[in-house]
Write a structure and sequence with these properties.
rod-shaped; mainly alpha
Length: 95
């Protein structure tokens, strides 16, 4: 037998957790890595150092920013669906 619906409380909790990861945890990590990369840049000179810094700023950092955005969006989708489920359940009297 197929199941339909959701445990709104669990989906809301997990959606909120995903949003927090995308909106706060990953940006905090980005800030920490930025600081480390900048400190390395101040203590390493030459073409390899330039490549290292360019890799972080040109490729890796933007990729991580994109992942943060996707995780936040994914969490928001869960929250939106949980809210819709709660509204539907309230209107129909079901759980």
């Amino acid at each position: 037998m197929a199941r339909l619906g959701m445990d709104v409380e669990v989906v809301t909790q997990h959606g909120t957790a995903l949003k927090n990861i995308g909106d706060h945890d990953i940006p905090s990590l980005l800030h920490r890595v930025d600081n480390l990369v900048n400190e390395i840049q101040g203590n390493w000179w030459g073409p390899d150092a330039q490549h290292f810094h360019a890799s972080w700023t040109g490729t890796d950092r933007p990729a991580l920013q994109g992942i943060a955005h996707e995780i936040s969006t994914f969490g928001q989708q869960a929250l939106t669906n949980a809210q819709r489920q709660a509204q539907t359940s309230a209107a129909t009297g079901s759980v």
